[in-house]
TrEMBL record:
InterPro entries: ScoMcrA_N
Superkingdom of the organism of origin: Bacteria
Biological source species: Falsihalocynthiibacter arcticus
ScoMcrA-like N-terminal head domain location: 43-138
Protein name listed in UniProt: ScoMcrA-like N-terminal head domain-containing protein
Pfam families recorded: ScoMcrA_N
Length: 156
């Protein structure tokens, strides 16, 4: 597989291809059903989400989205910040739906799910609900009147 352009992005694409081939070798039948994907989303813990956020920091958001096959996100999850006055701290933002799709891959025997395979391109509500359940805040850039407003947080 040739690596075109940025080495980091090329290696990430190669990693995705190897993961898909590994799924094939393990006998995974490919794309899990919607029911199976709902079960996988429910198994995602904060540890997998934070690991994906760490990967995203290392790889860069654009390369991460490209590798996962996702477009420009409209809803973002924020990394929790441990400071006394976190209201003044700019918190890093991560693509909410892509973060959950990548977190599923970090589960034991978790399948590789690119955007078109993750709930057949849908899955927003499942992703947003799970991130909220795990204590992450979501920021919705689609809100025309208040861009970047928090739409989901624990306790809502």
């Amino acid at each position: 597989m040739p690596i075109d352009g940025d080495l980091r992005t090329g290696l990430a694409s190669l990693r995705q291809a190897i993961s898909l081939y590994d799924d094939f070798l393990r006998g995974n039948r490919g794309i899990p059903s919607k029911r199976e994907q709902v079960q996988l989303v429910a198994k995602v813990t904060r540890a997998e989400v934070i690991a994906v956020m760490d990967d995203c920091d290392k790889e860069g958001i654009d390369a991460f989205l490209k590798r996962q096959g996702f477009g420009t996100p409209q809803v973002w999850a924020t990394r929790l910040v441990d400071t006394e006055d976190s209201s003044t701290v700019e918190r890093p933002r991560y693509p909410a739906k892509a973060t959950i799709a990548a977190a599923i891959q970090k589960l034991p025997n978790g399948p590789s799910l690119i955007a078109k395979n993750f709930f057949k391109g849908a899955g927003e509500s499942q992703s947003f609900d799970r991130l909220t359940e795990l204590g992450f805040e979501l920021i919705d850039d689609r809100k025309k009147t208040r861009p970047g407003c928090i739409v989901h947080s624990r306790g809502d």
